[in-house]
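Worked Example 4.2. Consider the chain below.
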Amino acid sequence: MKENDFKMSIGVFDSGMGGISVLSELIKLMPNENYIYYGDSNNAPYGTKTVEEITKLSINACDFLISKGVKAIVIACNTATSASIKILRNKYSIPIIGMEPAIKPAIEISTDKKIVVLATPITLAEKKFENLVNKLHANEKVIKVPAPELVEIVESGDINSNMVKQQIQHYFCDINMSQVGFVVLGCTHFIFLRDMIQEVIGKEIDLVDGNEGTARHLKDTLLTLGLLIHKNNNDTQVKFFNSIDNDKILNLSKQLFKYITNSNRHI
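Applying the procedure from the previous section yields the following structure tokens:
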């Protein structure tokens, strides 16, 4: 497929490879679109950087995607959304769709149980998160658990080892899990560790993430603007780029994509 064939694609970016979990949800909901994915693995994780640093990196990612002619951008990263979405929306004329931890659906279902939010330090510390919790009157229910190490684990591709399980167990060791009804996965990297997190916390506690909600938001936006492709596209493709421009990282991105989608789509 030629470069021009990717004009009017949907652009997706993340601090690394975690946003591939969002990409899979987008494709599930909008299978006729083409997609360009940009992972900034060279600067991962974003969750331990300053807001200024994250904003600069997010602008770089958006500039790259816009240079490819995308019609909309999904910030497939809770941290980048928290730090920079207002600036990005002011800077660019195309739709910019962000992420936020899926506290709202957990609150709506959970009555008397606590809600653990597993996320990066920046996501949990930012005003955007505080405003969301206040808006939902959830201050007494939310337990914040920063988990930056999990981002690096996914970036390494080592998602099934016993060391990963021990790290997850460490996050929950001081929490009375009998009082918890939901664990919110507040970082897109964590979706790749979903099965292991579920194993650690137990099947009686539900996991929730914001990927589906983000995909629906984008679909509704494109539909409103008349930009959604309705006709069946039998040649729909995904193109991967990364700030670490070598075969190893790009191959790992593609492996993670196939792992989460079980897809034979051409990439």
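The chain is about 45% helix and 15% strand. The domain at 103-209 is CATH 3.40.50.1860 (Rossmann fold). Compare this with Example 4.1 before moving on.
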